[in-house]
Amino acid sequence: MANNAKTSKAVAKRIAQDKEAMLKALQETPNVTMACKKSGVNRKTFYRWCKEDSDFEEEAETAFAEGIEFRNDMADSGLMLGVQDRQHASIMGWLKHNHPRYIPASTKSPPRLTRKERHRQQAEEFAGTQAESDIERKKHELGEELGREFDRRYRALIVESIQARAKQNTPADTT
Question: Fewer C-beta neighbours within 10 Å, C or N terminus of the chain?
Fold first, then answer.
């Protein structure tokens, strides 16, 4: 029994170390596949950890964002060196992303969302479509109800009309 507890503590410690290595790899390389190779963690294991441990998922999202910032800083430094060296591609790259006259309207993309933000957005969209379908269903029900009421009133009007004609066409009683 004591050996089992010792083993599970060792496994938990190893998992914690692997998670830490994965987070560090994501900070340096914001690509899950490459970070998994670098840290020695299987991709399926990484995604299972994210699914089972929301704290780890948040830490991974943060590490990923930090990794993107790190890579952006590296790329920016390289770009600045290229601009200083008067490299045409570097100059155009800088202008296309930083000068309003050179930014094509079609390349403006929305900001990258975290997994939680995407889930929240999808839930809101789903709720919106649910609300829209509820409204459509209620409109349909109301239309049916109004249709039945119209039919009832129309039939009553026809019956009244028939009865009025019948009264007009009956001969007067002569006594």
Answer: C
